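anyone seen this seq b4? input:
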Amino acid sequence: MQIPEQFQLGAASSAWQTEGWKGKKPGQDSYLDDWYKNEYFVWHNGKGPDVATDFMTRYQEDIDLMKAIGLKTYRTSINWSRFFTDYEKLTVDEDYAQHIDDVINALLAAGIKPMIAMEHYEVPQFLQDKFGGWNSREVVRLFVEYARILFKRYGDRVCDWFTFNEPIVPQTRIHLDGVRYPHDLNPQKWMQCNYHKVLATALVVKAYRAMELPGRVGIIHNWEFAYPRAAGYQPDVDAAHAYDLFHNRLFVDPLLKGHYSHELLTLLDHNDIQFKAEPQDDGIIAANTIDVIGLNLYFPARVKEPEHLWNPQAAFNPRKYYDDFVLPGRKFNASRGWEIYPPMMYDLAMIMKNEYNNFPWFISENGMGIENEAQFRDDSGMINDDYRINFIQEHLHWLIKAVNEGANCEGYMLWAFTDCVSPMNAFKNRYGLVEIDLEHNLARRLKRSGLWYRDLIKNRTLPDTTAFAKGVDA
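predicted toks r here
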């Protein structure tokens, strides 16, 4: 199977998961930094964003490795909490701003296109404390001003901008599930944060277009792809549909179509979690839909009808409408407990083609995190991660199959370029094409997958069949 020439093969990471705290000034904590300081013990082996991979000082070393692999695209973020020394007066930290300049210029010099998110969980803790974070329209306003400054400084070189990475995740873990610091269980706040991020995105799109810059503005959404246990059983189909509404369509519909679905709004009213909006908001959202969307996709969700009535005294959760279903005999990654089901790539592509009028999109994250990868090190010191190679091949097979059938998918960004810190898991599960050796001064070493990805980018050829695609006409 040939990978089309225009299809981009790249990799991704984020600021907070790589930078470390060198040069960070007092008062520049992000939400992640504050969480780590207050609950460091829930992070695996106590490791977190304080050191990360030290990309702040070693970015050139990493970019040299990107060039050696042949990456043409690198998706990362700018750390909002480090970009200012005063978040209300919008006083730029010129040291950090220069670092971003240097990284962008180094990427371009290496022939690598930067794709930049403005927030990847890096909301300043100051804005959390003073305004309640994304519950506040003042934070929406400040975010739009932050975006304008980024466009003015870097818009001549960066043409692919994304307001958020996984905008639903922080408030879901904090306000909906209550599992992450500060464990503020409040479904109304959850929905208000969701809404304000949609509104902020529309306002950023409006600001960008007013500046008449040549690039695009989008968002990175973590698509939670839900399959019903029994496709011919309507209660299971309804369960999967409800899952989709609350996890996906509440962001994707207003950002791509310019409005929320009536069905979702009815459910919000019914559960007394409707967001608060102002009269002009509908027009702003309708007139400023995004240009492109990145979709993060790792594993499928499988659901069935709820087996028990929801406790009417319990706080709202979409689980009111479904129960999880574990597919017997599934293939799964034991390190994460996630099912491996590459055909979901094709199924998602058909949704984007048929339900969203072939809107421009790309896979912005997909990858395989494995625990104790050192056990796969060979005598030369290289990690032989054939499992990762097979994972990528299988998922790319189904994605390219969809592209060949007319899906408007622009590319695939592997998570991640290097091993990096993840929330709570820290370095427990490794995702990178490049190893970060925590025991030897964060030394970088290519894994076998890095060499394989280099050859894939060069030759643009996948095996005609994979384990999952056996017998499939590709």
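The mean pLDDT is 96. The longest strand covers residues 216-222. kinda curious what u guys think
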